[in-house]
Amino acid sequence: MKNIDLELIEKLADNMNEHSLTEINLEIGDQKLVLKKERKVNEVVTTSIPQKTVVKSTEKVEKKEKTLLDGAITGNVITSPMVGTFYRSPAPGAEVFVQEGQNINVGDPVCIIEAMKMMNEVSSQFSGKIVRILVEDGVIVKKGDKLFIVE
Fold this sequence. Notes:
The chain is mainly β and about 150 residues long. It is about 10% helix and about 40% strand. It has one helix at about 5-20, and strands spanning about 25-30, 30-35, 40-45, 55, 75-80, 85, 105, 110-115, 120-125, 130-135, 140, 145-150. The strands form four sheets. A four-stranded antiparallel sheet has the order 5-12-10-7, with no helix packed on it. Strands 9-8-6-11 form a four-stranded antiparallel sheet, with no helix packed on it.
């Protein structure tokens, strides 16, 4: 039995976004993969002033990566290997993997990226000190987003 490749899943998810698809079904042998994307539900509220419309989105607003105040990044950057939700700890209420100022080694877990209900542990490619954590817990990140700076 061959497992469905994570890169294939990422490509399918990217295609869903690119082509505005809401569902993809894939069957390989006895394995079945279903990717579903919730549609945005918009509520339109009109005011008494003609030609003005207020749109309230009922979908949770995605938080974006924090911008760096000092501009340039120095040191090594750990990036997200995939699209998903960034978590600093292995479970709600558990101790975080790393904190700013903490020394780490190559291979140490630094966070989890949840993608399609799967928890994917991200390990450091660098040894050094975590000098900055660039995203907040629970934020949706994209592949290649900067997560940590290690010096």
